[in-house]
Amino acid sequence: MSRERRNKPEPVQTHALEVDDVAKNYGDAPALNPLSLTVEHGERIALIGHNGSGKTTLMRIAAGLLEPSQGSVKIAGHGAGSLYARAALSFIADNPTFYDDLSLWEHLEYIARLHGVDDWEQTAADLLGHLGLYERADDMPNRFSRGLKQKSAIALGFIRPFEVLCVDEPFVGLDASGKEALLDLLADASENGATVVVATHELSFVHTVSRVVALRDGALVYDGTTQGIDVDRLVRTEDPAGEHDGEAH
Description:
alpha/beta, four-stranded antiparallel sheet, globular
């Protein structure tokens, strides 16, 4: 599904995503140990790790939804959570929530207009058709099944312009056609020059990236290319130390 993204914020000459010595604690319990990494404009990255590894925490900090205990995150040179960063980054959460009194179509209109997209209707119709949701446009997404909620969140993430796309476990709950539709949308985003970071164990996506970042127990344990590594084993174990040519931590 090829489409042109409009009203995209103009990038500055810096990293698309810069994580500088970021850590997050909940009381005395560390959720994310100090870590640093940079992501360049146009990169396509798989972020992997078991439940509790820190993936969601890192994503939410980057999206400006969670304050780090230390360190900072910048989106195209602007602090996470700033007006520019919120305009530049689209975040699709793993457990989406919706307004009780808005239909799916009204959600799409709200998000599109919030981000300055006036001619949104055709894009919305295309997204709903691609995701198999066109017949559900007037229904309330807060009453949908897990899979339909995930598809709805994907549509909302793509209705708006973005420079950086962060997606947290988007394949969970999707049927085969939904997974294929999402892979198409992610490919289109990359082709349009967006930076794409996806937290996932979905091998059909991981095999399309050139860089894998792995977390374990809140720590960065691998950040490297997929060249010459057993991607399937890396996804299953997140234990690349001593096994691969990339940078193990």
